[in-house]
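hey can u check if this looks right to u? its 538 residues, i copy pasted from the old doc so theres a chance i mangled smth
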Amino acid sequence: MESILSSIDYKDPIWITIAFLFGALSRGIGLPPLVGFLVAGFILNAFGVAGGYFLNEMADIGIALLLFTIGLKLKLKDLLKIEIWGTALSHMLIFSLVSVGILLFLKQLGLPLFNQLSVIHAFIIGFALSFSSTVFVVKALDERGDFLSCYGQIAVGVLIIQDLIAVLYLGVSATKIPSIWAVGLILLIFIGRPLIIKLSTKVGHGELLLLFGLSMALGGSALFEAVDMKADLGALVFGILLANTPKADELSKALLSVKELFLIGFFLSIGMAGLPDLTTFMAVFILLLLLAFKSGLFFWLISKFRVRTFLASKSSLALGNYSEFGLIVLVVAVSQGWVANDWLVVMAVLVAASFVISSIANQYSDNIYFRFQDKLKKHQHPSVSATTTDIDLTNIGILICGMGRIGGGAYDQLSEDNNVVGLDFDTGIVASQLEQGRQTYYANISSSYFWSQLDIKNSEIEWVLLCSPNVDTNKAAAKFMRNWGFKGNISATSVYLDEQEELIENGVDTVFNIYAEAGTGLALHGQKSLSKSEKTTS
């Protein structure tokens, strides 16, 4: 314990406080907090502040926890879909080659930094630019409640394929050659999977479950590092071992706040990677122009693999950024003497700038699609049906959005006397609800495009219940319903009391706070039981 505390410089809490202030400012102007963390890192760098041991450790733990939670939600069968692996591999190849061509062309023009590139330099940098940010995309999807949406799963699937290629890159580089024990470790892990799953069901809830998750994520990282494999891959693999198990969802939620805390160190460390100058900013500006091609190529490829153009546009905008792994690629290249250190600074600034642009693009992704939908629909594969929704609202009086435990319970209570339909963007939940006899459809309720196609204005629905666990999803659904002319009553669930006003501002009529009203529900339930007992006695 003393050695851990001694690694904390007295200035570290100050840097974290500054990161918090910039994160709050970033959220205040409509950008993800992580953008503020990056800006804080660059500003601290400008004042000569360098990241120490403690911040580096925070960064490593944050990445491990992030990849572990990705693994918890990963469905390996989804990676076998051609729209995922086909898009990922094709995009990396095409984008890398195009980037190499552009870099060599800029070299011929004699531009600063670019004029120092060789063909090998260009290939390494082009390869680094081809990655999209797992950290940014997953965090952005989580914040919007879109992680399990169809477009979110496509984006995450592409990122996982890229991560696997990243592992291969580290494996063939001189710095990461797996030892002979790596094969035995992997066999031991999968043989021991039943024991790990059983242990997860025995630890209960609360702090023991949290500690179990931390031990799995960090233990997996340590084991893989011990056999000279990428530590982050270990966290991902251990998450995959627990995916689709009874505790996976609860474990992911338990680790959420801890993961967010440690990721601050990661984004601060990116900002502290180097101090940019005018030449750096010029190179960054030029390479940022490639983001349009990057997103456009993703859209074209995903559409060609028979995905609706709306989903393709959402996925392509989510993936339209540069990756923190580009920094790792260049760190390895610089350490081997393959690329000049100046390009590491360029990549650090480029990643941060791409996050800002991608945040804005994703914030207005629905509006972007509406504006260009006529042109974009021309790229839709002929085999894809022109019908955008098969949801039948005929004679339906109540609509429940979010068919988890709360939505399922509301459905059972209300369906006795009313015609009810449920919506959810998790295909697994939809399948489960259908098996239990609840009429449920797949839908992304936080998408304005979905509500525009549903024609809720002319339906017979009188009451909508928003039961998503993500308040931003509920706010978006209420806002879009009102925008598309719904005049009926909207009720929504919330977790925190300060969310009530935000929901009402977006069109919600009544808000049910899960925790505040739980006592009322328990009392009513108890009164019913007591009444039945008294009747039986009499």
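DSSP finds 26 helices and six strands in the chain.
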